[in-house]
Amino acid sequence: xAHILKAxxxxxxxxxxxxxxxxxxxxxxxxxxxxxxxxxxxNIPLLDLLNSDCRRILDIGCGAGNNALLIKSRNxxxxxxxxxxxxxxxxxxxxxxxxxxxADIEGEIPDDLANQSFDVLVFSHVLxxxxxxxxxxxxxxxxxxxxxxxxxxxxxxxxxxxRLQFLTGDFEYQSCGVLDDTHLRYFTYFTAxxxxxxxxxxxxxxxxxxxxxxxxxxxxxxxxxRKLSELIDQWGCRHWPNLFGYQVLIRVVKI
Length: 255
Prior knowledge:
The protein has helices at 2-23, 44-47, 66-74, 87-93, 111-114, 133-141, 160-167, 192-196, 218-223, 226-239, 241-244; strands at residues 26-30, 36-40, 56-60, 79-84, 99-102, 118-124, 144-155, 203-212, 245-254. Helix content is 36%, strand content 25%. The protein has a single domain (2-254), classed as Rossmann fold (3-Layer(aba) Sandwich). The protein has 11 helices and 9 strands. The strands form 2 sheets. Strands 5-4-3-6-7-9-8 form a 7-stranded mixed beta sheet. By secondary structure, it is of the alpha/beta class. Helix 1 (2-23) packs antiparallel against helix 7.
């Protein structure tokens, strides 16, 4: 039995990596120091919630600037700014950004940033890394224009793959994914907005969804057409978001 559970655990870890690469392709690159650079293909499902008429966007915890690159490819007239704690990330991000600040987002907002305003704030897989994400969200929301939007993406700790992994007794931190060893907070579809917006009564949820997949296993690989598999995934995520959703996606507006 122990051998079976161990095999299931390893299989689920592989599934987690595939889910991560499909929904939010994350490739973590370690530099010579502890400084970790987060680089990916951009969070497409989250940025699909972005209004096309936005002009100024601040990507908070911007990583290597891949979201900015994706935004600019869709809307070249949009000015994208970023802030990250990593100087290495900022060097990569500023290529596709108007400006990128290097600062601790849990500390005070830099003076030259605090005096600016934005149509949209983006928190893509960053809030789970913070000690007090609700406070950080409230602080940065002061930079929003009236009617401005916040796009939030956080991993779902209770997706089907994570539940099975926990059932096998496997809770080991990894260098990326839901159990990233720098994650301090964990959320589900039902708790994410309630907790993250607890200090921001001026922010109202206008859309909440997930991206993820239904475990179709070999049917997806060998039998079902890709389009049908995608329709099943969408149906599953719509009806059971806390089971099949890998990441929780939230759009809020400043009222």
